[in-house]
Amino acid sequence: MRQLIVLGFVGLLAQLIDGSLGMAYGVTSTTLLLAAGIAPATASAAVHFSEIGTSLVSGISHHKFGNVDWKTVSILAIPGFVGAFAGATFLTSLNGDAATPWISGILLALGIYVIWRFLALGGRRPEFKGRPGVKLLVPMGLVGGALDSIGGGGWGPVGTTTLLSSGRLEPRKVVGSIDTSEFVVAVGGSLGFLFALGSSGIEWSIAGALLVGGVIAAPIAAWLVKILPARVLAIAAGGIIILTNARTIALALGASSTTVTITLIALAAAWIALIVHAVRLERRTRQTEPLAEVGAEVTTGS
């Protein structure tokens, strides 16, 4: 019973992060399950089944707060489903260890770019023109869905990072659209695991505990996305991208646990400082906007 309560809290925390920043539910939950000695396929299956419920509630919540771009979701859904089903079906025969550091390197670079892009604006408001097209969304959906099943998490890191770096959608709609489309990805991955493992291979109690915690956190996370300024939200997401992938790369390079810990602490400190800086920029921008509007009215009136 105590283990289920702990897993429920993990599901709550993971969904709070995922629903606010568009990633980390699968990574957080799967990491804990693997540390507890659960087999990779079994852990990923439990996470995906819990995600069916959490992503559904999250999608509904994001929709109510206006955080979803449905055209983006409709394009992402099918390739995400196909990628997740294929990744789950062949999880036991595929080895993603060799490709993981390279993928993490790309995501790390994109995370740095996202932070730079929004900080480089200074006091100006970010602008978002157009929508991401089929040529970007289809391959992103296939890769993100497959990695999500193989590694127990990947839809958010790949999707959120790619869309944020494209500059086509404002951050809250990036997060909302990725979280909403994750429902289809979770269904595809879960069907693949049922096909590969059978129902007896699924730890339903673990999936249920994660689900309960995630469902509680989903509406709160969607509300946070609604109220957070685009600049602050993007830098917060960019920091999660950098921290997650820096850890993966450091471990792949054989760094000691002490080195990894010191590196992550340093990066986390820099990340917090950047968020504080972003909040100050946002306040400064809000203070100067009324003055600019008054100046424009005076000029028009004269």
Automatic annotation (TrEMBL):
InterPro entries: TM_pro_TauE-like, TSUP/Inactive_protease-like. The keyword Cell membrane applies. Coiled coil: none annotated. It is found in: Cell membrane; Membrane. Pfam families: TauE. It is a multi-pass membrane protein. It comes from the Bacteria. The chain crosses the membrane at residues 32-52, 73-93, 99-119, 174-198, 204-225, 232-253, 259-279. One of its GO terms (cellular component) is plasma membrane. Keywords: Cell membrane, Membrane, Transmembrane, Transmembrane helix. Belongs to the 4-toluene sulfonate uptake permease (TSUP) (TC 2.A.102) family. This is Probable membrane transporter protein.
